[in-house]
Amino acid sequence: xxxxxxxxxxxxxxxxxxxxxxxxxxxxxxxxxxxxxxxxxxxxxxxxxxxxxxxxxxxxxxxxxxxxxxxxxxxxxxxxxxxxxxxxxxxxxxxxxxx
Length: 99
What we know:
single chain, about 100 residues, alpha+beta, six-stranded mixed beta sheet, two-stranded antiparallel sheet
């Protein structure tokens, strides 16, 4: 789904569950959870819409009018901190002001 398509969905009042997904260290993407289906948000060219931080991704959600999301990490190996790993987590986010 492109960002333009997401904006159109939101303009029609539909508020699907949104996830901010940590793919790797310093790479975050947005996806919708529609039942069992996961739909990644892409830019207008069809390329992956990526953010350098979860805060930047949350700012984008705020600008779209969304105030809730779930932070998700699918698990990754982090060489920058001596090889620690993240087995994956889910954390609810709620914004009362722009991140």
